[in-house]
Amino acid sequence: MGVDLTALHWIYVTFIVLIIGFMVMRRDTSIVCIVGIFLIAITATGSLSASVSSIFASFIFAITELLSTILVISIIVAMSKTLTTTGINDVMISPFTKFIRTPALAYWTIGILMMVISWFFWPSPAVALLGAVLLPVAVRVGLPALGVAMAMNLFGHGIALSGDYIIQAAPKLTADAAGLPVSDVINASIPLVVVMGFVTTISAFYFLKRDMKSGKLTVDSSQSVLPIKPSDEANQTLLSINQKRFFALFIPVLFALDVVAMFMFDLQGGDATALVGGTSIIILLIITMVSHKHQGLEKTTSYLIDGFQFGFKVFGPVIPIAAFFYLGDSGFTTIIGDFLPKGSHGIVNDLGLALANVVPLSKEVGAVTLTVVGAITGLDGSGFSGISLAGSIASLFATAIGAGAATLTALGQIAAIWVGGGTLVPWALIPAAAICNVDAFELARRNLKPVLIGLVVTTIVAMFLI
């Protein structure tokens, strides 16, 4: 096996089990992760002061690793707020309203538009950008508000977020935990995201049409108009209609150029994130200065503060969990020091080798386990807090099987985000449910069967790809 398992390995395994258990019980895992970091550190060093310091060092390491991701999401949210405040988003989306003439066209148009916008803006801002404009149109042509919420959820929080090909926040988290290049996880996830997306959205549409036909689901005309706040009315005069039209064209062109640059210069991971982030900052500055004029300087700071508040609120629970799982691989030496047993290849790799010697795992067992683990980690409702665990376990299983690290990592990522990112867990569905004025629990029930069908089919496909 190359190295004997020590107390460090068993503590790590014990806390993985505890973290999964707490997630299943829908309890927060931050304290569990911090205790795990402390126990691993004190077992390795034997020093109380060094162990206490390791907790702080692990947080610094995790934040350093995640900082570019937190920053780009914060900046994109800040930029999206300027688009909503100035009314540019209304103009950007309005051309698509003419395509929405039937319930079926409403479902697929809103869904595909949500997916594309979510790749660049992330789903939470995209819900706000789309919902207020397209909901009344969809309800008018006969698609219930619940159907609108499903389309936004499944295409945005499901397909777009589980792949996350532009911002690359999700694949970076899982790839880091699995000790893989981000590009490997992205490439492995493409067929799985496609299968999951097709199966889930088609299943959801079938069940939606069936219940509309039987009368179980009807259109409530009161949901066709959303109330406009006084502040929104006041903000409509920030830009002229011609200025809004210019920016509505200018913004997509800039992001399209970003995508072209990514392909031409082979930009991935941090480089791709930096390009999108820098473009978003430029857009934020230009729009704010043009629309708010003399108050532009102050408003720019205000928008950035709103964005950073959102970013750290989303990633606050992720940092302690990521800090713990970084100890399983590259982070151990940086955070605690050179205290691993002689011949060790990292805690996770050691466990994988040991597992391969004790229990000969198959690719089928590995795929099913990663789907279940991913789904369990998503139960906390963030989708992101547990994908480091999925990446860590994928690395462990791939070592035992001897192949499939990237595919298993991508599978765990997809399961975690589809469950927790905003399609099944009711408290993660609140943004879409609130925009569409529907019950979050009813939306979760509607999504349950299509998502489960999708996960089963995607897991089977992953078995053949490992």
Quick structural overview:
The chain is mostly helical.
Task: Please outline the helices and strands.
Blueprint: H1 7-24, H2 30-45, H3 48-86, H4 88-93, H5 103-121, H6 123-140, H7 145-163, H8 169-178, H9 182-214, H10 230-235, H11 241-264, H12 270-292, H13 296-315, H14 318-326, H15 331-335, H16 347-358, H17 363-377, H18 387-401, H19 405-423, H20 430-436, H21 440-465
Characterise the protein shown here.
With 466 residues, the chain is mainly α. The protein has one domain (7-465). It has helices at 7-24, 30-45, 48-86, 88-93, 103-121, 123-140, 145-163, 169-178, 182-214, 230-235, 241-264, 270-292, 296-315, 318-326, 331-335, 347-358, 363-377, 387-401, 405-423, 430-436, 440-465. The model is unreliable at 224-234 (pLDDT under 50).
Low-confidence sequence ranges: 224-234
How many β strands by DSSP?
0
Topology pattern, helix = H, strand = E: HHHHHHHHHHHHHHHHHHHHH
Number of helices: 21
Radius of gyration: 23 Å
Mean pLDDT: 85
- Content of β-strand: under 5%
Keywords:
466 residues, 0% strand
